[in-house]
Here is the input.
Amino acid sequence: MNRIEKLRNKLPANTKGAIVISDTNREYLSKLLSSAGTLLIFPDTAYFIIDSRYIEVAKKNVVGAEVILQGKLYEQISELCSRHGIDEVLCEEEISLAEYNALKANVGSVHFIADDTLSSAIQQERAIKEPKELKMICDAQAITDAAFLEILNFIKPGVSEKQVAAELEYTMRKLGADGLAFETIVASGTNGSMPHAVPSDKLIQNGEFVTMDYGAKLCGYCSDMTRTVAVGEVGEEQKRIYDTVLNAHLSSMAAAKAGVYGDYLDKIARDIIYEAGYEGCFGHSLGHSLGLDIHEKPMSSYARHDLLPAGTIMTIEPGIYIEGKYGVRIENMIFITEKGYKNLTGSERKLITL
Ligand code: GLY
Ligand code: MN
Here is the structure.
């Protein structure tokens, strides 16, 4: 069964039509990486409307939908809906208000429904990775791991955060990455207390931690890893923080398996960090799923109650951040199975001192 057929099975039986416009949902369902396109799904057929830039590759790659060259898009949508007697179409929550208003204004014969029906059905389908998707993410992570080994030879006092970020990105490209999974984070010394610090011209100094959060993109799929390394000898509190984060990381990971809830894993990590005296120093969630997007549902968060099904990939990324001093985060990806999990990240987690 192709992805569009699987989606039809997930939608309510009385669904008349659905329209998929947002980039990664469209990419997922059509299997075409493109910056444009409209997927129209009807009960027994589907159309992929795409402009001339992509028509050739679309005809070769799109699975489960008839490919149509885009002309006057809204007239084409109107015509296809009326040809199939469709007067009601589900929209994704991910589209913009402008896109929704344009559909309503230009395709008057159709009632466009903007609730979460379509988005949550696609989300659920995307959460369970197919073997090929898992392989792509593992291959992207292998590049990420290899870049980590190389960057250890590059980091030293006097090198800037921006230079480390550039070297990581260039190395991943050289190793075959199509691009970056997200903007690379490199934070040294006091900048480490900002979980999503932007790499700066600050020069790395002896006695500092350097946190790197980065990933490769391969065939549309993301990898995600964070490592904190020490440059020269670090102090006792830094070591204690590192050990606490590692303990939180390993303990929450050990409890992962299909059927547990994300907030349960988050609590295991959070309790360890808080009991060590760092309440208030771990503000973000324990982790998230990922795939074509760097952040996908489900999440492992104190603020949500998401079931983790077999076949989903989750990050485990606790951290401790102390303003004005330093920060530590350790992040791996795991594949959730019925019995437990498979660790997808190969890089060393013990504190590395350069
Ligand atoms: N690695 C970036 C993030 O998970 O937000
Ligand atoms: Mn992450």
Summary: Residues 224, 288, 315, 317, 331 surround manganese (II) ion (ligand 2) (CB under 6 Å). The domain at 3-126 is CATH 3.40.350.10 (Creatine Amidinohydrolase; Chain A, domain 1). The chain has two domains: 3-126, 128-343.
